[in-house]
């Protein structure tokens, strides 16, 4: 939080008044944003927060003059200096972009041109505005790469984006955005696709650069944790309307609008209380893993240079019925590989997986087929994991029917389960595209439950959902576990989520389990340095208080 | 890289051997054969037939004939044409220029026009322009080429008298303009289909790229719309098109059977049809090998070009 002087009221870098943006006809509402007004004060970070569909990204794109042609501004003004961006000519807007207003995007993996080197892409910003000679631009690019903290700028300059990690690419994007020292930086969820530790670094970088250059930053996010880390002032948007705005202190400490309160409450907090269970534990474990290993090999066998990546090294753990085990780690830590080994989506290179006392690791597919229904998976992407051409009923019943359940019984059970996960039975005959992300994830859960599994493996099952929906799904999973006694393995990159639902947590780093213990240990008394680092990187823990 | 090339070359050799065995077997196992034309000669005796067969080496077992043919091929002797007794390579060489001229012109033309139409349509999807070229492409693709050829001859030769109906040049007039005059109609007719195909692919490739985030990044930099399109959109959309262009190489030399026949163009397509009619097996086998080599060469060149343009492929 910047301690700005309340007397010297800062001037506005951007003044938005009564802005209304229309959606194309036939959408669920008429306006993407309607009648919104706010100021982006010079030298401040303004966070615009809201869930998907709240109109926050549309607002950002409107400032950049980058709205898709189907969406148009129907009223109001966006003033930047003497220019009203809503009725400026395309040529004026083009000249402002990159020079006065810059933007960075959510997904650094797709925001860079894969065919151009990093250096050329930074150079292009200056080239577009006719700045400097070739040599000047090159020197400036190298300076920028250094400024955003990339190692070995000279090498980085000639590198193609695919060689860089997500965090490095986002740094390149920031370097690009800073090339012409713009007055305004618009950041559209720039850390959402990054791991917690990388997210913390990028937030620090943006904060640091903003302070040094006195830039004004408009920061779009859906995470109140991030708001608490970085914002000077906050705008809360719901369904295209601003429901609350004020200083970050004010909004975080003393939210007025129920929607804001709900959003803040829904932010998963670190819980260092371990879960309690009614029944006494001690029944035989559902699954017991012993020294499980998996290596990936790449490169040609004929022409040398084979690369071996140890994805999972010597993983061992056991899980009782009715309990949840969290597997936490950053991308590349091997957590998803471990999950895939457990459901036998791929074969292990060594070790045992005892499921109900049988070692399933060496089993062939034909042998394993009769056991597969007992181990079910819930996937990350609720949009990609349901066949868009099948009805919900078909999606739910296809598996059990293939395993010999009578179709009539399967549909009866499917309807019952749909109601159980909070959808009405009418969903049975509808198609996936008719449902929201949260509803689809409920369908995914119902599908997994059709087999009455003993073990559920949820791979980032709530990562793609808005926070308020996330909380509901976690609650649903919790209820289901208490009713059915299913054991659950919950794979996530989000320590906060893991802390809320897990009895025990495994922390993985580069294929190795570096720590194993109940949430109370992991968060209050972490044993490994890596866990400590992860816990420290969690954004916005202050608002948990 | 060297390892990759060696690997590809080795694969190509194996494929060529397989193709040649299949081609040889199919040709020789079908009824008829080079001797059947002699059988109709009045007064031909079985004895004389046997003697001819022996002279041509056709009385040996098929595997022996194949090995003999293959061995000579490796030494640069592709056999002699049954039809006129000339070396196969010479026969092919005489026809390949005509085909190169026709297909080269039409391919260059269709890639240029098709690319332009594809980009133009993709940047204005569902506009009047986009709809008309889509319908145009469907028409061009669904009507057979020979129909366009015949209609062209009817209108431009018979009715208007502007263009010649066929052949590559007027006998006795070898001027460049005369060649050009003969080239116009067949190359345009060929281009109709190719423009349609190429523009459809280019439109799809461009649409795939145009909504990607990095295009938005390019706009956010303040680049002109023209540079966004040419450098960022088209640059990336061209990558899959290179592979497609590689697959066009064999057809550039392989000729267009139908078009060359309609316009009596003395190219490879005509040669293939005629040789089949005369059971001129050495020439047919020669053409088969040329087109097999071209297919492999085309895809190899395309893969190398893609690797050159797209850094992500280079590591593989």
Question: Can you put this structure into words, describing what you see?
Answer:
The complex is a heterodimer of chains A (545) and B (316). By secondary structure, chain A is of the alpha/beta class. Chain A has 3 domains: 11-100 and 187-267, Rossmann fold (3-Layer(aba) Sandwich); 108-181, no CATH class; 287-383 and 453-536, Rossmann fold (3-Layer(aba) Sandwich). Chain A is built from 19 helices and 20 strands. In chain A, the strands form 4 sheets. In chain A, strands 6-7-8-3-9-10 form a 6-stranded mixed β-sheet, sandwiched between helices. In chain A, strands 16-17-18-13-19-20 form a 6-stranded mixed β-sheet, sandwiched between helices. In chain A, strand 1 (12-22) and strand 2 (31-41) form a beta hairpin. In chain A, helix 10 (258-266) crosses helix 16 (467-484), helix 13 packs parallel to helix 15 and helix 15 (437-449) packs parallel to helix 16 (467-484). Chain A is globular and about 70 Å long. The model of chain A is unreliable at 1-8 and 300-304 (pLDDT under 50). Chain B has 316 residues and is mostly helical. Chain B has 2 domains: 2-74, no CATH class; 92-211 and 238-313, MetI-like fold (Orthogonal Bundle). Helix content of chain B is 77%, strand content 0%. Chain B contains 14 helices and no strands. Chain B has helices at 2-29, 36-39, 46-56, 62-74, 88-123, 128-142, 145-159, 176-210, 213-220, 225-254, 257-262, 268-277, 281-309, 311-314. In chain B, helix 1 (2-29) packs antiparallel against helix 13 (281-309), helix 5 (88-123) packs parallel to helix 13 and helix 9 (213-220) packs across helix 10 (225-254). The model of chain B has no long low-confidence stretch (mean pLDDT 86). The A-B interface holds A 64, 66, 90, 94-99, 102-103, 105, 107, 110-115, 124-125, 128-129, 160, 162, 173, 176, 300, 302-303 and B 3-4, 7, 212-214, 216-225, 227, 232, 235-236, 239, 309-312. Chain B: Its main location: membrane. Chain B: Keywords: Cell membrane, Membrane, Transmembrane, Transmembrane helix, Transport. Chain B: Belongs to the binding-protein-dependent transport system permease family.
